User: Which sequence fits this backbone?
């Protein structure tokens, strides 16, 4: 799986509350939080490398 979700606001309670899912099922992002310029650059590089693999 690409992602794991946990209940808000409790957070990671135990394995039985975890929800696993992949990137392709995400329809929209409501809030992405704090993202630095370094992270933006890293994500761009990773995305381009993933495209060469697929």
Assistant:
């Amino acid at each position: 799986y690409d992602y794991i979700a946990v209940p808000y606001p409790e957070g990671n309670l135990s394995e039985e509350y975890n929800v696993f899912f992949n990137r392709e099922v995400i329809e929209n992002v409501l809030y992405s939080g704090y993202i630095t310029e370094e992270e933006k650059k890293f994500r761009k590089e990773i995305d381009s490398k993933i495209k060469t693999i697929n």
Notes: The mean pLDDT is 93. Strands lie at 3-5, 19-21. DSSP finds one helix and two strands in the chain.
